Automatic annotation (TrEMBL):
Stated name of the protein: Aminotransferase
Lineage, broadest ranks: Bacteria, Bacillati, Bacillota, Bacilli, Lactobacillales
Family: Belongs to the class-I pyridoxal-phosphate-dependent aminotransferase family.
GO molecular function: pyridoxal phosphate binding; transaminase activity
Species this protein is from: Limosilactobacillus frumenti DSM 13145
Cofactor(s) in the UniProt record: pyridoxal 5'-phosphate
Superkingdom of the source species: Bacteria
Aminotransferase class I/classII large domain: residues covered: 37-386
Amino acid sequence: MPELSADLTGTINHKLAAQSPSGIRAFDRSVSQIPGIIKLTLGEPDLNTPEHVKQAAVDSIQENDSHYAPQMGKPELQQAIVNYLKRTRDINYDPNSEVVVTVGATEALTATLFSLLNTGDKVIIPTPVFSLYFPLVAMTGAIPVQVDTSADGFVLTPERLEEVLAKDGNGVKAVLLNYPSNPTGREYPKETLQGLAEVIAKHHLFAIADEIYSDLVYGVDHYSIAAMIPDRTILISGLSKSHAMTGWRLGYVVGPRQIMASIGKMHAFLVTSVTDNVQAAAIEALNNGDQDPQEARKIYQKRRDFVVDGLRKLGFEMSTPQGAFYIFAKIPDAFGTDDFKFATELAHQAKVGVTPGSAFGAGGEGYVRLSYAASDEDLQEALKRIGDFVKSL
């Protein structure tokens, strides 16, 4: 086994070295080896990719669709994305110049941030939120500005955004919104988005909208800020959650053609192009799979209601999630705000894995995130174990 030469130690990218690994993944790894643990830590659907989507990929392989795809995506998939966004969001994009197909929403986000940001720029990020945003922004040399939304029901209000810009607005280039939210499951009402759009336009900012969970909402409508300020919004999404395709790694980013040219260039530097048979599956999912997320929603909503009701009976406090498949619950008073200690003891003593809320940034302290994208049997057993653990405190 080779050892790195001593004269090369400490010479790697300093920006990368300064970033900690994902707290979500790190905690998941730390508890995954516990025998018999029920893991509710990751946003991993237990549902399978729909059969017609899988068959499209099989057909692609059988037809020897195995050569370099166009860098920005297969034209049929670009058109399918445009049709889907028109059909579901009433937003219009040009498939030839305003759509880039990516390796998951993560690569879409990476290409976007590295295309937009310069050293010293600031990005406002409402928290608690998916923690990957912080290191990605920092890696560009820009500064993530965390805005704790816990006092406002985990939603960034226009008034709060104005306050932040008045206090720390010098150098702000973009506002990054994730909704329905990971980890809180909160949606943004249309009126709130309209207010945010006005503030963003007034201050000449970009809006980066991560809407990866937008097909999984319960009892509310999803509105895209891209429909309100299309000239300054970069919309990111994908099929990982809506069609249970996390392992396929298929995402996309859309926006005004002038910025999409830069994002497409960065995407090409990162990955060249996306796998052919994965794109074939995505074409099928978007053209003929509108019913798939609707069926998934019914399953997830039933599980959400079961877990929310069960946790509340055990004394947990939480807002009912309106989308995605997470519950962000306040831990029992006996633990104060030490969510890491609570999650660690729950894993080792009750054999249930949840994610400490502090992994999601400011406002997450004292909470834990549970994913209900798990089987009914696992959720039932997990609630029983959590109940026994809480009663033993």
